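Progress narrative, work stream C.
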Amino acid sequence: TGRHNMDSYSIAKRALVAGLVLALAACDDGLTDINTNPNAPTDVGAEFLLPQSIRGAVEATFGAGQMLSHTAIWPQQAVQLQYPDEEEGSVRASRMQSYWNNFYVGPLMDVQRVIEKGVADSNANYEGVGRIWKSYIFHIVTDLWGDVPYSEALIGDSITTPVYDAQKDIYTGMIADLTTGAGKLSSAATGFGSGDILYGDDMVKWGRFANSLRMRLAMRMSEVDPTAAKAAFIAAYSAGPFTSNADNAKLAWPGSPYENPLYENWTGRDDHGVSATMIDTLTSLSDPRRELYAEPATQDGTTYRGQPSGKITQEFSLAYYSRIGNYWRKDGKSTPTVIMSYSEVLLLAAEAAKLGWISGDAGALYTAGIQASMEQYAGATNAPTAAEITAYLAQSAITYNATNGLDQIHLQQWIGLFMGGSEAWSNVRRTDSPNLVAGPDLTLSRIPVRFSYPALEESLNVTNLDAAISRQGGGKALTDRVWWDVN
């Protein structure tokens, strides 16, 4: 889109100011009919800003560029069958700049205006939903880069060089916003109408999404600040997260020009496959999700064979390897993008129960989480059947074992988060599970654990960027950990 060509959120702000100056200059000189463009509104309603923000953030997070070339590559779920730069740890500066812009220039600015309109109009649902969705976007941004502009990033045109907030403080702010946002929602108040493309103005489900996301964020802090993490998790779990797959946060794609970004990639480029790590894991566990996640190699049409991760020299043709399942590719035009699932919530609860944070049977929650993961694909070609699910859960390798329960929970999170944006990568970084082995052609000391900062920030906001890098102990390279990554 056009916004991808903008240099940064600061450039967007300057453009906004310039537009306002030009508008004011067009004073009433008797030529009102000529000077007024009916197709260029001076104000955009929240019901138009929210869907723009949702769609933009989802396209950025779950698109082929960011996910299939980075955040699904490094947790060894997908592979680059051609142009494997990122497989060897070579990241293109232009892409880092583009991903940064794709969040700050569009979705974050749009949702901030939703919040502001909610406050100005005393519309609690606008403000509440805005705070929730803003926190969703910012948690993606900070988990990719670490310390980022947060408190000063969206507050006005007077600040074009915002400070970089410490990731710990960003987490505190996001959890507070999610709590406040959920508390403001009311089914009796005015909503977004058709503009709520996520939940159709179902404020109960928005509240459950907020609480579920709080659980994700709380667990993310579990290794670095367990006391705060436990308190935040208990509060979110008690407030009420997802209760079934019907609550899943997922974006439906209505059709051209709004189609699932993985389908769009299939129609134009389609040069990604499934990793050997994923294929081999699914095969060894007789996991029925294999037939959904992957296609048989076209060379013989029957064999599931993954490309080794971190390998840039191919021994065989593309036809030798399994491609990503047609549920997302050939048949994926209207496949919904799952932003957060009931399965993830159950597995987070299982981990919390195992840690002693909440009461409940960790094994039962773990089993329910696996079942929910498989059932969320009901109706899709190659979706696991009830009999397959029962057989899978009955296997000794799958049955919950308290001795290695955390490893089992983390492995199922990794499997269930396939094509899940950046979440699988974040979860692997937090848990170090599964224990991934770096590929033979990786040129770095470890599999990447963060995004690199965009080059324009070094030109436009270098003082604040340098302070953030220093605060993170040199947190600039792909191998430098973010705050919560201590494993």
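Work stream C, second folded protein:
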Amino acid sequence: DSLSGFADGRIADIGHYGSGLISVFQDGFYLEALDHFSRVGNDRLKYLNNSIGNAYMQLDSLDLAEVYFRKEIQYAGNLEGAYGNLAYLLYSKGDEEALRELIKEDPNGKYIPEDIKRAVHFIDFRPLAYLSVLAKSLAKGVNTWGVLAAFLIMMAWVVYLRKLDIFEVEKWSNVILAVVLGMIFTFLVYPLSDFNNMILGFYLNGGIFNDFMYCVLGIGAVEELVKIIPFLIMLRFTSAINEPFDYIKYASLSALGFAFMENMIYFRENSLDIIHGRALTAVVAHMFDSSVIAYGIMLNNYKRRRNPFLNFLFFFFLASLAHGFYDFWLINHQASQFSFITIIFLLICMVIWNSLKNNALNQSGFFDPGKTIDHGKIEDFLLYSLAGVLLFEFIAMAYNYGPATAGDSLLSSLYSGTYLMVFISSSFGKVDLHRGEWVSFRDWF
């Protein structure tokens, strides 16, 4: 307000523009913001036309918004903001031809968002260009700390799975193959999701029913399909899966490969404080969901004989439903106030997964009563390795943001994660081996 009253027009323009920004960011009053912006004398002021366009876009005046975004570009102002906003506007209007022209205006790809370019290449069926943009966008977020954290988490769970595999220990070559296949097939998520969004018009829109169905079908079914393909390849083309526990193990290994790639994307330099959270929640959930499908196939092979295709579809649906239910309470804005449901559901899934792996171990054709699992060592390994992930997060935060910030983050992490570390180590360390016995979920609860 003080600057707006200056006689010097340049300073007054900054005052009026700043008042408009405050109206937008603090209160969301777009009409009031437009009133402030209209008082700016210099219509070439950098950022001004982009901000006016954004206000009109929020008010659904898309034609006016487009005019002002193009003005910002014409005056060579905030090019990144104007190109990005204009690209999203044209995409929302379905004006593919204008989008293609806009992309030509930005030959070096400096300003057009990668997801918009990817969408255009997908619609035009240009797979090489699509893959090139996808690779560049994924590489942008990768950093050394994130890669190391993702690898540390993955190896903690890989070693845990090997410690359970006492009757017929798998070769490391097969373990690595399953994990690498899980990493490679992760990239299928993007074209499948783009098909959902751009061809079927199926995407999140904030509605309770729509978002729940999208979480189950658009996220859960897509990711579970991608994660189970490496397992099916191992089952069909190798001799590695030759006992019931191998079904759980290789499905989990594929899920760990997938989670490794996903974590690298999530662990950007400004998101290092979520490392321990992903290790304790999302990675475990991925293993559980994939194990549900594999357990269903194992049941059909070792306990009952039903139509294998229908059996697969049933357990695939269960896994997709579990995945979607987990995500829904975190993604939907209205449901997020009940996000604690996700944690409760995860704890239930952990107990069920423990039952799945125990039943699989009991049915091994290589079962040897002389071989046992030291519960205490398994529990200690899990507790120490998960605490090690938390320590790594502290070191990464301290290196990047200083010890004070890292200390605050550590206290918050201990508050939110200690009970999960204790629950996981005590629950997953429990194994009750009895040859041929099928233990119900109820007994484990």
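The longest helix spans residues 208-237. No further action is required on this item.
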